[in-house]
Amino acid sequence: MATNRTFTMIKPDAFGEGNAGAILKMIEEAGFNILALKLTKLDKATAGKFYAVHKERPFYMDLCDYMSSGPIIAAILEKDNAVADFRKLIGATNPKEAEEGTIRKLFAKSIEANAVHGSDSDENAKIEGSFFFSELEIIND
Ligand code: GDP
């Protein structure tokens, strides 16, 4: 059964260019409730842990460098059908392929610096949310 939570990060390119407010506004206007929110900066080892599933991919080291290059905002979001609806809101990984009006189409710079992360399954949403937030940091009512 689909749960109603997903996990997102506003990535260093989007935060660094001052787009965090606009992106959070789009997220709220799309009907997502913010259950947890944190501004932080990953070091390379922590970015590597978060993206461990990609460690065999050729872009893994670049991705770790990029994700530790500046502050990020991590958040847990709530909405019916959260994972799928959020993936729709952010658009394709490669902004060149992202639909008009999606967050990546509007704000991403490249396939790597693509403005936002969105979990790809309910299972990963839970794992990724727990990577950044303890239960006490998540609004639960
Ligand atoms: P996502 O689920 O849409 O975020 O895409 P993936 O899980 O496939 O990839 C994770 C992240 O790795 C992406 O969001 C990008 O930041 C980065 N990435 C994906 N594909 C490439 C690529 O071909 N080259 C580079 N440099 N980075 C990539």
How far is the N terminus from the C terminus?
20 Å
Number of helices: 7
Which whole number gives the mean pLDDT?
Answer: 97
Fraction in beta strands: 15-25%
Task: For the structure shown, list the relevant keywords.
alpha+beta, Alpha-Beta Plaits, four-stranded antiparallel β-sheet, 7 helices, 17% strand, binds guanosine-5'-diphosphate
Structural summary, described in words:
The protein is α+β, with helices and mostly antiparallel strands and 141 residues long. It has one domain (5-137): Nucleoside diphosphate kinase-like domain (Alpha-Beta Plaits). The protein is 39% helix and 17% strand. The chain contains seven helices and four strands; from the N terminus they run βααβααβααβα. It has helices spanning 12-16, 20-29, 44-50, 60-67, 82-90, 103-107, 122-132, and strands at residues 5-10, 33-40, 72-78, 116-118. The chain has a four-stranded antiparallel sheet with strand order 2-3-1-4. The mean pLDDT is 97. Residues 54, 59, 62-63, 93, 111-112, 114, 117, 120 line the site of guanosine-5'-diphosphate.
A few lines on this structure:
With 141 residues, the chain is an alpha+beta fold. The protein has helices spanning 12-16, 20-29, 44-50, 60-67, 82-90, 103-107, 122-132; strands at residues 5-10, 33-40, 72-78, 116-118. The two termini are 20 Å apart.
Topology:
Blueprint: E1 5-10, H1 12-16, H2 20-29, E2 33-40, H3 44-50, H4 60-67, E3 72-78, H5 82-90, H6 103-107, E4 116-118, H7 122-132
Bound molecules: guanosine-5'-diphosphate (GDP).
